[in-house]
Design brief:
Blueprint lengths: L4 H16 L31 H11 L3 H14 L2 H17 L3 H14 L4 H17 L3 H12 L6 H17 L3 H12 L4 H16 L3 H10 L3 H15 L3 H14 L7 E2 L4 E2 L13 E6 L4 H19 L4 E6 L3 H13 L4 E3 L4 H10 L7 E3 L11 E3 L4 H15 L3 E7 L2 H17 L2 E8 L7 H7 L7 E5 L3 H14 L5 E4 L18 E4 L1 H4 L1 H4 L1 H10 L5 H21 L6 E3 L4 E4 L5 E4 L1 E6 L2 E5 L8
Parallel strand pairs: 3-4, 3-5, 5-6, 6-7, 8-9, 8-10, 10-11, 11-12
Antiparallel strand pairs: 1-2, 12-16, 13-14, 14-15, 16-17
InterPro entries: LpoA, Peripla_BP_I
GO biological process, one term: peptidoglycan biosynthetic process
Protein name: Lipoprotein
Length: about 600
């Protein structure tokens, strides 16, 4: 069977553009010194025989005729359909990139992403091509977005993940964010071996050597990641102790003074770092096992503050903070040591890799855990889930809007790791319910909508349609205004749009948008007024995101008390919504709908009905 007319037209346009941009100009000549090819080619489904055109394209690729191969792969895609067709488009994109035609590569990768919302391997491969294409064109903000989204896909191969982290480190260094670059290099170090690891160590040392002593000392105070701290310590100690024996003694002394660090090896520093981890005596029976480094550090601080505030107001068990580092093995060690030192229930881990690591070592007799993230397939007796992410709100929009009568959604999200994860969860839930996805497009906050996004919104959606917009308070006005310039009537639902304590400075452009969030954000004083006063003193300069997470800390503590008392029936009126224990030990919360009118929040009784 032939592809549907709309798709045939799309492929014909791609072929026309490919010819116009020069795929055939040098089609008979091998391309010299191509950029690295995608190390994760997508395999053709084994049950589908290759066409003659595709076979010829494969032969051209093998002999270095990349542009001619790209042209034939596009023709092969026009002759095929289904997964085979998408595979040929992906091959054409990779060949175009190798043939130094980044614009064509990006367009082809866009088509793959448009056709494949759910295939993680194809999305990973297409994002990798787009990232390299944007880099070749000097569009580094777009390249960063693709790379960060690629890192959120669990099936992304290790070598691609490592290369993406290395590239992000380069981009952040160019932007003057050297500490962020250092974090990427050190995080990617565990993915490398042999010469690649040695080269990565050289990059780390070169970055450290280019910084002043004062800056390195400042970084030590800012980073909560022990791996980063130890690299910084070695850099400082090396400057002060040129003698190897003195340097080793100084490193050992530093580790003794700074316990709680995992085993790492500093190659070419004449020093072997040993694990001298020690934990302080147990401070409380409810233990917060939360990340202390990267973007999660200030959020973890707010969650812990919320938990300690609840402990004070409830006169309940004390709270003790166990700070994880992004090293899953170390998280598992912290969990086991926490048990030995008196933890009766854990709030956290939060990150998927940490949840997997703890679940792997946890025994049935160990204390219960309330994880703050969801990892599919991880289910144990005594392991509960209270998810903090906007993904939960995205899933709620899918369920409630489908129940209200909506049937088609148009998805628009910023191209970053968070936006990618939120829209993916929405689409998965929406499709499971039977909803239709009218289209998916990305946008770059602060920039004019792409042609793809404008096409997505320029049609005439029916009364049962809405736009699922992923944004935050900072970019919401611009995004909503851009949508209204294209379509002034389609409903817009946004997951936890007002995820902080305040509206944007000018929220008039948000009028008519419907959203979901929690009572704490709508009116903190009504949810738990005593907690507001205490948290304002504990977190005087809290960001909007921290204020939201403090509310989760208040509720997490009360859930932990319920779990300790083995009382998992009924509901709990929390700061983040009405909380329920459901099957598979999940804790769900009923959030509230609201809309923004003239810059003011107006609570709604439920999702607006279609056509209203």
């Amino acid at each position: 069977m032939m592809p549907p007319p709309a798709l045939k037209t799309s492929l014909r346009l791609l072929m026309t553009l490919a010819l116009a941009t020069g795929l055939s100009a040098c089609a008979s000549m091998p391309q010299k010194t191509p950029p690295p090819s995608n190390p994760t080619p997508v395999e053709t489904p084994a049950s589908t025989p290759e066409t003659l055109t595709a076979q010829r394209a494969g032969q051209l690729t093998a002999t270095g005729h990349d542009l001619a191969a790209a042209k034939d792969y596009i023709r092969a895609a026009a002759e095929a359909r289904g997964q085979t067709q998408v595979h040929y488009l992906m091959e054409a994109a990779q060949a175009s990139l190798k043939g130094r035609k980044p614009r064509v590569a990006i367009l082809l990768a866009n088509e793959v992403l448009r056709l494949q919302h759910d295939n993680a391997e194809l999305r990973s491969a297409a994002l990798w091509v787009r990232a390299q294409g944007f880099m070749d064109q000097g569009q580094t903000p777009s390249a960063k977005g693709n790379l960060e989204e690629l890192l959120t896909i669990t099936s992304t191969p290790q070598e691609v993940r490592a290369q993406a982290m290395g590239t992000l480190a380069t981009l952040y260094t160019q932007e003057g964010h050297e500490l962020t670059a250092l974090n990427f290099l050190i995080e990617g170090d565990s993915l490398l071996s042999g010469n690649d690891a040695a080269e990565n160590h050289r990059r780390i040392r070169a970055l450290l050597d280019s910084q002043s002593t004062a800056k390195l000392q400042n970084w030590q105070g800012r980073s909560g990641n022990p791996l980063v701290q130890e690299w910084l310590a070695v850099a400082l100690i090396t400057r002060q102790n040129p003698d190897p024996q003195q340097r080793q003694a100084a490193i050992s002394a530093w580790l003794t003074a700074h316990p709680g660090h995992p085993l790492i090896n500093f190659s070419d520093h004449n020093a072997t770092i040993t694990d001298t981890s020690r934990l302080n005596p147990a401070l409380g029976s409810i233990c917060a096992l939360l990340p202390s480094s990267g973007p999660y550090a200030p959020l973890s601080q707010a969650i812990t503050a919320g938990m300690k505030t609840a402990a004070q107001l409830q006169s309940g068990p004390a709270v003790r903070a166990l700070r994880t580092t992004g090293n899953p093995s170390y998280t598992a060690v912290l969990f086991e040591r926490g048990i030995k030192e008196g933890c009766k229930v854990f709030v956290g881990p939060w990150l998927p890799q940490d949840i997997n690591a703890v679940a792997a070592v946890r025994k049935p007799s160990d204390p219960p855990i309330i994880t703050l993230g969801v990892v599919p397939g991880v289910q144990q007796s005594g392991l509960y889930t209270l998810s903090l992410s906007r993904n939960v709100a995205a899933q709620q929009i899918a369920v409630q809007s489908y129940g209200a009568g909506y049937r088609r959604a148009y998805v628009l999200y910023p191209q970053d790791s968070s936006g990618a994860a939120i829209q993916a969860d929405f689409i998965a839930t929406w499709k499971k319910l039977g909803g239709e996805v009218g289209g998916v497009a990305t946008y770059l906050p602060g920039h004019t909508f792409t042609n793809e996004a404008q096409r997505l919104l320029s049609g005439s959606p029916g009364q049962d349609s809405f736009v699922f917009l992923v944004t935050n308070a900072k970019n919401a006005n611009a995004a909503v205004s851009s949508i209204r310039l294209i379509n002034n009537s389609v409903p817009i639902f946004s997951p936890a749009l007002l995820h902080g304590a305040a509206l944007p400075n000018d929220a008039r452009g948000l009028s008519g948008i419907a959203s979901v969030d929690m009572p704490w954000i709508i009116n903190s004083g009504q949810s738990w007024p005593q907690a507001v006063l205490l948290l304002r003193s504990t977190l005087p300069n809290a960001s909007d995101a921290q204020w939201r997470m403090a509310a989760f800390g208040l509720d997490a503590y009360r859930i932990a008390e319920r779990v300790m008392d083995k009382d998992t029936t009924g509901s709990l009126a929390g700061a983040t919504g009405t909380l329920h224990f459901v099957t598979r030990n999940q804790v769900i919360r009923d959030m509230e709908w609201m809309e923004v009118e003239n810059g003011q929040i107006v609570p709604l009784s439920g999702v607006p009905k279609p056509g209203t």
